[in-house]
Amino acid sequence: MESKTHINVRNLNVFYEEHQALKDITLDIPDKKITAIIGPSGCGKTTLLKSLNRLIDLTEGVKVSGSVFVDGENIFNPGVEVTHIRKKMGLLSQRPCPLPMSIFDNVAFGPRIHGIKDKKELQNIVEHYLKETSLWDDVKDRLHTSASKLSIGQQQRLCLSRCLAVEPEIILGDEPTSALDPQSSLRIENRFRVLKDNYTIVIVTHILRQAKRLADYIVLLYCGELIEHGPAQEFFENPKEKLTKEYISGVIS
Amino acid sequence: MGLRNIELRKLEEIIFKILMIVATVIITGSLAFIIVIIIVKGLPAMKLSMITQLPKGGFYIGKEGGILNAIAGSLMVAGGATLLSIIISIPVVLYINIYRKKRSRLANLTRFSFDVLWGVPSIVYGAFGFTVMLAFGIKASLLGGIIAIGFLELPIMSRAVDEVVRMVPSELKEATYSLGATKLETSYKVIVRQTFSGIVTATLIAFGRGIGDAAAVIFTAGYSDYIPDSLSQPAATLPLAIFFQMGTPFPEVQERAYASAFILTLIILVISITSRIIAVKITKHTIK
Ligand SMILES: Nc1ncnc2c1ncn2[C@@H]1O[C@H](COP(=O)(O)OP(=O)(O)OP(=O)(O)O)[C@@H](O)[C@H]1O
Ligand SMILES: [Mg+2]
Fold this sequence. Notes:
The complex is a heterodimer. Chain A is α/β, with parallel strands linked by helices. Chain A has helices at about 45-50, 80-85, 105-115, 120-130, 135-140, 150-165, 180-195, 210-215, 230-235, 240-250, and strands at about 5-15, 20-30, 35-40, 60-70, 75, 90, 170-175, 200-205, 215-220, 225-230.
């Protein structure tokens, strides 16, 4: 059948207590493309995203059935070691969340826990990934001051640097630009366009226009169900489902 | 009717405002009152020798000497006990918050235990410590005092730390986990850092509570006119010094009880103020 990609979701169901947040989702996320998960508020976008790196585990009273394969391994198998799965996937949250330490230590945190001790090497890594998000020039003179002193837009770029420093294959973003000013949002979006050559990117967004201008592949959820998914152009120009048409034209939101 | 209603509500507002002011005055006033009483009554006995000398012969009938033994003993007992309670409470709190679901049965049971332990009178900790010591053949000593006071401080410390660890935003944990950190790394490299000022405050509160307690040390730490130089020697403590000095028939010695009380209060005051300053200062890297 279809060629195997990095992430394959198969018959995924997620329950919060009695409430079913995702209903039988089956989906292949294309490699080295930007996939946007869209849909109205409460439809399960965050739930789907968090299922991909098993952050969903942290939620109280959650039950999951079905599977998510990452590089062929079902991450919901009992006995799977979650840290190496999470290492493969960087996460950008809605509100940037720097760690309670200096700018330098934020970026160096991942490499350090994964075993890099050499000072010079860490310095190079930090510099490289801060340049990658064009934050370096803003912060190179105050690397050892607290990360929480940065502006929100800078913090989000720092979080992106921090996640890239772990050398993930996949980047997940839960409305990563919604807390940012338009210019900072644009910077992150532009960064994504460059990064997609090397990374598989999955973002949640509720802004249709953002999905249109940024995404190569669209996934529409509605009330926990997967309504339609496909390449962006086809999805917007030639939607198959009635619900998709209504959603694109703004009849439902 | 509308007008009456408004006047009634105004009256209500005034009455409650007065009640609140009275309550505030009672709190701050009683602190001031306690300090004034111990200063006034202890003033005649407040000499430098009180804090620099051990009791000399005839101390308990009003002759030479000071209470250095009790000051040093109290600092040792409370210091050791606070260390003990940190060593136990931080892993417990991290375990129930990070390793278990926050609202799991085990977490709730543990929190319930903190609450019950908090309410246990300190004399019971003394008796408990005494029983344990008998079983292990330990005599009344610095070690005994540290264990008894340590258990007294444990619920105070644990509840205070639990409070701050529970407040850690879940995004912060998600951010750390998504970098591939284990629970242990998340706990010690991120959660402890994030809550550090809260942990320091909890430590100082527990220390203050431990150093002021008399009932838990009465059987366990014993009393001595000297500064203990090992864990197995008995240690004097300030609350017991006050108790003994107050119990003598000599007015000069009773004055010393007030002077000792002043010293103890001063230590606790310094600790409270320090903890407030630290709580403000250490929040440098903390994420809100
Ligand atoms: N921890 C939880 N406990 C119970 N129900 C939850 C929990 N988290 C989410 N839900 C419910 O699951 C459904 C899907 O939530 P989810 O957060 O995935 O939606 P979303 O599409 O990301 O919404 P939004 O656009 O508002 O962020 C919602 O109905 C929500 O109320
Ligand atoms: Mg969401």
